[in-house]
From TrEMBL:
Pfam families: Usp. It comes from Haloarchaeobius iranensis. This is Nucleotide-binding universal stress protein, UspA family. It comes from the Archaea. Residues 1-147 form the UspA domain. Belongs to the universal stress protein A family. InterPro entries: Rossmann-like_a/b/a_fold, Universal_stress_UspA, UspA.
């Protein structure tokens, strides 16, 4: 039923909660897990020029060490947590609008379940859902499980 699970992560604490939940499911169902970090090119374009953004789009982070480190840390965490549970995890990096890329990757990899956090790095907690999660829910027909730290009591 859950042969293939996608865990989009921005490395936030809430995303890491989603990682735990997703891996527990993967362990139970012997699922293959993909994790994905999307470089938000719209946000980048505001703070940098188009030239830098084109570099990122073509997979070259260039001088953007900080961004690359964030991306790697976020996905390494999932790979490592998977290893501890004997779950195979492949890491993916893409550039674009996060919710669109997440929905596209869910299609391309034919995933049975997307597991993500209710909030992320820039989270305003009084908002029920972060915009990436909200837009993923509006962009895909695949099942999405949203993990909210405020619903965690264990
Ligand atoms: P907002 O970005 O709307 O200001 P936020 O940062 O609190 O609010 P989201 O960005 O929607 O909330 O994050 C919710 C979840 O979406 C995260 O826990 C993570 O699972 C996923 N996510 C967010 N950004 C990315 C990204 N760039 N790449 C992959 N997954 C992401
Ligand atoms: Mn965000």
């Amino acid at each position: 039923m859950y042969d293939r699970i996608l865990i989009p992560t921005d490395g936030s604490e809430t995303a890491e909660l989603a990682v735990e939940r997703a891996l527990a499911i993967a362990e139970r169902f012997d699922s293959t897990v993909d994790t994905l970090f999307v470089v938000d090119t719209d946000a980048l374009e505001l703070s940098l020029g188009t030239e830098q953004v084109d570099r990122v789009r073509s997979g070259r982070f260039g001088e953007m060490d900080e961004l690359e480190a964030t991306a790697r840390e976020a996905t390494d965490h999932v790979v490592e947590a998977g290893r501890e549970r004997d779950v195979d995890v492949s890491a993916h990096f893409r550039a674009g609008q996060p919710h669109k890329v997440i929905a596209d990757v869910a299609e391309d990899h034919d995933v049975d379940l997307v597991v993500m956090g209710s909030h992320g790095r820039s989270g305003v907690r009084r908002v029920l859902l972060g915009s990436v999660t909200e837009n993923v829910l509006r962009s895909t027909h695949r099942p999405v499980m949203v993990v909210d730290e405020r619903g965690e009591d264990d």
